[in-house]
Amino acid sequence: MPRILACSLLLLLGGCAKTLPAADPDKAWIDLYTIARNQLSANALDGRDWAQGRYFEVSPGAHHLQVRLQFETSGGGGGSREHDGGGGGTRTCILALDYDHFEAGKKYQLKAGTMGRRGWLRLYDEQGGVLSRGKQLRCGAF
């Protein structure tokens, strides 16, 4: 019985994990990355909602990328609950990044993380070099 349950669970989880589409060689592909305990999703591209939450695929040139980073916080921090979502729980940060030189056929990595109760965002090229640093638009318990 435990073996059947384990196999059923694996099949169920496998069905939930959708494969990513093939990259379009006429566009730039931007993978999203954060540590396992955080959640990072593509939120908007050039001011429009972006439905593909796991990546961006953009035409060459300049683009404005916006992501949603969710992470767990511990209590404390000395701030008031009213102004910074003090206390423990899930915190959400909206982060944005502008980059003017996306190239067709290139793959990029958009990495996000946390420092204390704030989020950070960086764009990397295929060799791991930092191309641009993002900014935090807002953060809170929303």
TrEMBL record:
Q: Which keywords describe this protein according to UniProt?
A: Signal
Q: Does the keyword Signal apply?
A: yes
Q: Where is the signal peptide?
A: 1-22
Q: Does the keyword Signal apply?
A: yes
Protein name stated in the entry: Lipoprotein
Organism of origin is Pseudomonas pohangensis
Q: What is the lineage of its organism?
A: Bacteria, Pseudomonadati, Pseudomonadota, Gammaproteobacteria, Pseudomonadales
